[in-house]
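so the lab meeting is tmrw and i was supposed to have these ready like two days ago... anyway. pasting both below. for each one the top line is the aa sequence and the line under it is the structure tokens. i havent really looked at them closely yet so no promises
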Amino acid sequence: MTKINRKFISILLAVMMVIAFMPVFAAPSHAAGNLILEATKVTFDSNSGGDNEWIFTADGSDAIKTAVVEDGSIATVSVSELGSWIIVYPVKDGDTNIVLTGENGDVVNIPVHVDKSYFIQDLKDRTSLSNEWYGSKKVYITSYAGAKGTMKIGKDKYNFTIGKSETKKIKLKRIYKLGTKIKITIKWKGYSAYVPFRIYSATTYDSLKASKHKVKVSTYNLHKGDYVKIIYKGKTYKKKITKDYDDKYKTVTVKVKKTLKKNSKLKIRIVNKNKKTLVKDSVKLVKWQYYIPDDDETGSEDE
């Protein structure tokens, strides 16, 4: 080997050593380790079905270090402890952006759109009515504290404001007919929603027992003017209710003329004073429903 060749090799080895220990610089790319999300935008509308939206990082993605909403009056955001997801909460309708920063310095913008329909649907879902059954003298409206509105039942109108308990009791002016429409218009934080209901029947019976000439029916939610009827072998026997048993249980005894036996087939009807049927059922007296009577009293037929 010549003297020149040896010098060349020495220089070459020195250059290679320098290169080996030099830091490696590379252009950033969205490969594993960079901030990659499973969703690129957030939309709240009438189909959202929840009070927040989650965005997760993809497999192999960098963790989220910070999340900042450009307009906090539209939405707010929080980051999970490990930085694997964010939770976005709507505040009012409008558009904004969330700026995410990854642990490695990546920056990603997430557009957020909050539609007015989201809050209208949310108000509808939040507003409920209870106790609106036939015969009730009071109802309860539940919604956001501070919400105001009107409730129309037939020709009557009731104004209300929801208090801190989020439930408002309203005393009704009269007993409304079965099926009467109830229209609630409610407003909250500048949003207005219409929620419809109807007067329905909550009257039921859960069991009965019979002797030769009596049928004892265990009922719930009877009202003054209702009739409990037993139809047996083509004849109808009835008992008129003279008091309100609103939201209460009551055992009603109906007397019959024709002799009842085990395996006898009966029809049960409960009708209100407007001749609307509240309960309709057919039964066969099985062994446990039939007992030996103490007396032989009979009742009058409903011709």
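ok protien two:
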Amino acid sequence: MTEPARIVGYGSLTSAEGLGRDLAGVLDARPLWLQARRAFAKPAQRSGCLAMDLALGAPVLEAGARAPDGEAPRCQGLVLTVAADAAPRLARREGYPAGCWERLVAWARPRTLAEALLELAEASGDLLAYRRELAARAGAYPLEQVHYLPHPVRVAGEAPAVVFVAPAPRRTGVPEAESIKADYPRLRPLGLEEVFRCAPEVYPPFAPDRQARYVELCLRAAAHGVWVGDLVRGPLDAAHPTAALLRRWRARPTALEEERAALRQAVPALRGGGYAERFVPDLEEALGRSGLWQGTADGPGEDRFVGGSLGS
């Protein structure tokens, strides 16, 4: 019997709304600190917006329940326990072929896929070598372009997990397919305060409405106390497309309460007292820990939304 998969989400996979239909396959979820920087940096599969990506310089991502010390790069996401039969669909959603995922799972047995990938990465030595070994075990790659590739996550004191990362051009390790990023040579990582302004220059298919929706799916993680302050490197201008969303949330947090309820009710391990054990039980405290806004007034009736402190 195949074990459930532990998969790390750091973008739209961090909210119930963002998980969408894939939420039904999630058995457990909890916050996890990742030792990496994230940004809007990868063309989405359906075009129109830049999706989240991690800056990964080694084949293994380091993670743990506590934030990294010192000046180490960090962001926070969720580690999801996903039913074995639902994991290939989630991989396909991330742009990784379900058939490749299933062949990797078969190769890994009796280990979990995360355990096998961690061993492979440690033996490979560097990022590109790991991806070449990964491609050799995943079999024929059926797509013309590479979106995300699975990498192992070494979780301090816990079982390893898998995270999807988008490779740079000429760094896929897949002989027959190039990175989707190669189509846009001016592409660079963007923070929330600049993505709507700069994306049209570096990514011509950019559609503001699609980007706004994707941003919302990512920022809904704030409802659970997940730190998203790293995405906002400075105050958002009042005219910024996301500023209106945040003002609505602040004035009427119904959508955020519904987000919390959706995750709590859909994920078996979070029902009963499970949610309160893993997440911040109070919405106001959760928003404070998220780093999304400080609640300081720029003027009468206005809130300034900025990236805040790391919290605890």
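from a quick look at the 2nd one: The radius of gyration is 19 Å. The chain has two domains: 5-183, 192-290. will dig more after coffe
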